[in-house]
């Protein structure tokens, strides 16, 4: 009689693995930025001074500056020209209207007019008190604003550590493929150890 013998071996899978590990891990230090500005007093003292303006007194004596003197002469010249023109115009119209009338002696009128001008007595002019000089004193003062300075420290942290990491790995492989063998024997089964 024939016997069917079967021998088999299951496939065998193996895993080759390597653990992950840290080679080095360190924390990066924070960066510090500083600004140091020294304090300063920035204070000073002004000199005291005295200002004396005696121009009003000198002007009362007649010592004027060129600006005032020119303005005064211009004003006097304008008023003299206007009064002279109006006086001459009035006199001319008077002469025109009265010259042909009997008893109107023009030369004697001029003579009497000239004599009245020269015969006027000197008139005393009343003087007011002369203004005194204006005196302004400036006292010495402490000026300036202090600078308080500034000491600023700005810390810039580093949020990521310095890490060197080797990742692990796992590799699977087929160590034995496995098999199924069949054969036929006569009279008995074949037995393998």
How would you briefly describe this protein structure?
The protein is α+β, with helices and mostly antiparallel strands. The chain contains three helices and twelve strands.
Describe this structure in words.
- By secondary structure, this protein is of the alpha+beta class.
- Helices cover 27% and strands 36% of the residues.
- It has 3 helices and 12 strands; from the N terminus they run ββββββαααββββββ.
- The protein has helices at 55-61, 66-98, 106-118; strands spanning 2-9, 12-18, 21-26, 31-37, 44-45, 49-53, 134-138, 142-143, 150-156, 162-166, 169-176, 179-186.
- A two-stranded antiparallel ribbon has the order 1-12.
- The longest helix is centred in the middle third of the chain and has 33 residues, at 66-98.
- The two termini are 23 Å apart.
Number of strands: 12
Oligomer description? single chain
Give the rounded overall mean pLDDT.
82
Globally, the shape reads: rod-shaped
Features:
27% helix, two-stranded antiparallel ribbon, 3 helices, alpha+beta, 193 residues
């Amino acid at each position: 009689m024939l016997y069917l013998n079967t021998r088999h071996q299951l496939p065998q899978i193996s895993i080759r693995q390597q653990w992950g590990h840290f080679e080095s891990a360190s924390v990066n230090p924070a960066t510090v930025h500083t600004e140091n500005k020294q304090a300063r007093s920035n204070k000073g003292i002004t000199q005291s001074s005295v200002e004396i303006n005696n121009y009003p007194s000198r002007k009362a004596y007649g010592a004027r500056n060129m600006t005032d003197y020119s303005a005064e002469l211009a004003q006097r010249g304008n008023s003299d020209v206007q009064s002279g023109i109006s006086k001459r115009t009035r006199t001319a119209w008077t002469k025109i209207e009265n010259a042909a009338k009997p008893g109107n002696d023009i030369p004697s009128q001029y003579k009497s007019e000239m004599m009245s001008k020269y015969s006027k007595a000197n008139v005393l002019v009343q003087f007011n008190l002369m203004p005194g000089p204006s005196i302004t004193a400036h006292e010495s003062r402490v000026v300036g604003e202090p600078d308080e300075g500034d000491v600023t420290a700005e810390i810039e942290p580093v949020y990521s550590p310095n890490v060197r990491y080797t990742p692990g790995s796992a590799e699977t492989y087929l160590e034995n493929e496995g098999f199924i063998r069949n054969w036929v024997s006569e009279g008995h089964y074949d037995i393998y150890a």
